[in-house]
């Protein structure tokens, strides 16, 4: 890993603001999720706008003006077709560069890292920009308090380059998994080929994101804990070797359960969910950038990443933090 950056839309939405239109309260949201505020993109701002902001900062941080491939992990592409990555690459001055999206909901960034690492190992690319970007607010049912209070918008990005397995910044191994039997637990029912929108109005609420919160909570704890343990095993690390757990910011209580399951003290978890909510595929790279900028992540420290999301999907990897400028 050779560069990191992030981008948040300027509008901050507090719990109190949500409580003016939904039957909820700041106290409920804080105590059940750890969230205090989130950022929402203004109408007219698309996922690619946030992705370009984060990608430009990651490129600058890496000292590389261009890369050989651009991967965008997102649940909220600018359009159903084409993918968002090519326009992001073009706006970053990389017309002609390989660019594609990865769709694994909140696990998308970890899947994106794995595919980027694969491109490098296969010598298809020497440097890859991996961006997690979301305008999740565009999917939320404004009347659904169980989802509206959780999600936020944002983007984070990293640059990967080829290197040795022993230098700071070395990434991997990976653990990835899925269980499509849980498809209905996290879903936007309408708009794809299963429930088409062409010429047909979606059934009420079915064009919005829906989640079975309690079931998802249990799956998230189980899968992130299992995947994190598997990747530690593959890396030959013990829990005690991990300086920081940067997990998908789904719910502060989930992160604490996962840390406990792995055998890590809570103090080793980096959390920014209070400030940004759950930003889906953007959550891990956004957290990495904030932890780096705040001096929490320091060179050569050992970092464990784990994520869980719709699909169901999950994935984990490890890295040693590189020497990067802080600006
Ligand atoms: O990022 C992808 C993965 N996503 C996740 O991992 C999210 C996982 N799930 C969660 O984080 C939690 O399940 C939620 C935050 C979504 C919900 O928290 P919970 O502690 O599981 O609450 P619950 O769904 O069991 O609901 C408890 C009560 C219910 O009321 P009753 O039936 O006990 O009267 C809900 O109707 O809380 C009520 N409730 C709310 N009350 C105030 C649900 N949402 C709200 C709300 N404000 N926003």
TrEMBL record:
- One GO-annotated biological process of the protein: fatty acid biosynthetic process
**Annotated segments matching region ACP-binding:** 249-253
- Pfam families xref list: ACP_syn_III (PF08545), ACP_syn_III_C (PF08541)
**Which top EC class applies here?**
transferase
**Residue stretches making up the Beta-ketoacyl-[acyl-carrier-protein] synthase III N-terminal domain:** 100-180
The record's EC number reads: 2.3.1.180
Q: Which domain of life is it from?
A: Bacteria
> What Gene Ontology cellular-component terms does the record carry?
cytoplasm
What UniProt keywords apply to this chain's record, in alphabetical order? Acyltransferase, Cytoplasm, Fatty acid biosynthesis, Fatty acid metabolism, Lipid biosynthesis, Lipid metabolism, Multifunctional enzyme, Transferase
Q: Which residues form the active site?
A: 106, 248, 278
Q: Where primarily located?
A: cytoplasm
- All residue ranges annotated as the Beta-ketoacyl-[acyl-carrier-protein] synthase III C-terminal domain in the record: 232-321
Catalyses which reaction? malonyl-[ACP] + acetyl-CoA + H(+) = 3-oxobutanoyl-[ACP] + CO2 + CoA
State the function annotated in the UniProt record.
Catalyzes the condensation reaction of fatty acid synthesis by the addition to an acyl acceptor of two carbons from malonyl-ACP. Catalyzes the first condensation reaction which initiates fatty acid synthesis and may therefore play a role in governing the total rate of fatty acid production. Possesses both acetoacetyl-ACP synthase and acetyl transacylase activities. Its substrate specificity determines the biosynthesis of branched-chain and/or straight-chain of fatty acids.
Name the family: Belongs to the thiolase-like superfamily. FabH family.
List the HAMAP family.
FabH (MF_01815)
Anything noted about its domains?
Answer: The last Arg residue of the ACP-binding site is essential for the weak association between ACP/AcpP and FabH.
- Subunit structure as annotated in this protein's UniProt entry: Homodimer.
Identification of the protein by name: Beta-ketoacyl-[acyl-carrier-protein] synthase III
Supply the source organism for this entry: Streptomyces ferrugineus
Gene encoding the protein: fabH
């Amino acid at each position: 890993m050779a560069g990191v950056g992030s981008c948040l839309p300027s509008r901050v939405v507090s719990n109190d603001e949500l409580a003016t239109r939904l039957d909820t309260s700041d106290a409920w949201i804080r105590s059940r999720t750890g969230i205090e505020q989130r950022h929402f993109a203004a109408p007219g701002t698309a996922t690619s706008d946030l992705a370009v902001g984060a990608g430009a900062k990651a490129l600058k941080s890496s000292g590389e003006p261009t890369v050989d491939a651009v991967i965008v992990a997102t649940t909220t592409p600018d359009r159903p077709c084409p993918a968002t990555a090519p326009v992001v690459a073009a706006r970053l001055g990389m017309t002609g560069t390989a660019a594609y999206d990865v769709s694994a909901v909140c696990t998308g960034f970890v899947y994106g890292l794995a595919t980027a690492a694969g491109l490098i190992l296969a010598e298809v690319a020497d440097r890859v920009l991996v961006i997690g970007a979301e305008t999740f607010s565009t999917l939320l049912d404004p009347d659904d308090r169980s989802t509206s209070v959780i999600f936020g918008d944002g983007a984070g990005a990293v640059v990967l380059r080829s290197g040795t397995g022993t230098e700071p910044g070395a990434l991997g191994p990976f653990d990835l998994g899925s269980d499509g039997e849980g498809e209905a637990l996290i879903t936007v029912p309408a708009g794809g080929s299963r429930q088409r929108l062409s010429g047909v109005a979606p059934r009420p609420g079915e064009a919005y994101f829906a989640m079975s919160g309690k079931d998802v909570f249990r799956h998230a704890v189980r899968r992130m804990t299992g995947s994190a343990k598997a990747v530690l095993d593959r890396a030959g690390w013990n829990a005690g070797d991990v300086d920081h757990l940067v997990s998908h910011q789904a719910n502060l209580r989930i992160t604490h359960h996962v840390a406990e399951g792995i055998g890590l003290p809570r103090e080793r978890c980096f959390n920014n969910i209070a400030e940004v909510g759950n930003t889906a595929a953007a959550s891990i790279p956004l957290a990495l950038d904030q932890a780096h900028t705040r001096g929490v992540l320091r060179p050569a420290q050992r970092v464990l990443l784990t994520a869980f999301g719709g699909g169901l999907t999950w994935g984990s990897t490890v890295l040693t933090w590189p020497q990067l400028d802080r600006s």
